Amino acid sequence: MAPTSTTHLTADDGTRLAVHLTGAGAPLLCLPGGPMLDSGYFRDLGGLAAHRAIALLDLRGTGASGTPADPASYRCDRQVADVEAVRRHLGLDRLDLLAHSAGANLAYAYAAAHPNRVERLALVAPSVRGLDIEISDDARSAIALLRAGEPWSAEAAAALARVQAGAGGESDWSAITPLTYGRWDDEVRAYDSWMDERRDDDRAMAFGADGAYDPEHARRALAELDVPVLVLAGALDVGNPVPVMAEVAALFPRGELVVHEGAGHFPWVDDPTGFVALVEDFVRPT
Q1: Which domain holds residue 222?
Q2: What pLDDT is recorded for position 224?
Q3: What CATH number has the domain bearing residue 127?
């Protein structure tokens, strides 16, 4: 993989932001999920960095970015200005964006506020909170049934049922973690533990605090976003079932749904080669 360098910029409110750049040329700007995980969990996106220059943004207060003076500025809508500041810093007229999970909410808000600054948009297992799309318990339970026979599946299914009934505890949330991935081996367990060490509940809560999302406005704006949009769904992602991801794709005039068979919420980890094969042509520089 090409060497990675880190560049810094100052956000409109004075917060120092870090962007990790790999490769030459106009990069694909990647917005992390979590919410509020540092961008290191992207790794090299399964090797995608060998095919397209990428820029990984550490959101304010995460990774190599600075802590803002106002913790309320972690709120999703207030970070739209950070994405725009990064665009200016990179010297790009329009952005190719990739957003994962909760980071998709920031992508929706940015695209709604700056539609003329978006060239194309790749949404990987996108959150639907910012769009007010419902995910039924039945849809998630159906995904869990696909894992029957795996050594951990009975415990995970029982834990999921308790969580859905509102009776789940911390141990239940831990028990359903394997349902987040397409495979649950030593490598994936280590990856998940690495992320757990970097999670911050306060920042995550602040990201989705009251006022963070305006679903009605977002849906209207995205319905007029005339750019290519790829929605990648993991066929085994219990958090974001394929039918719901199809609803996301349908919001966009040029939306396309691609299903990554055998993958969960982190497809570049589950199946790096398959992930790159599915997104490489879409994100290739034009």
Answers
A1: 4-132+201-283
A2: 97
A3: 3.40.50.1820
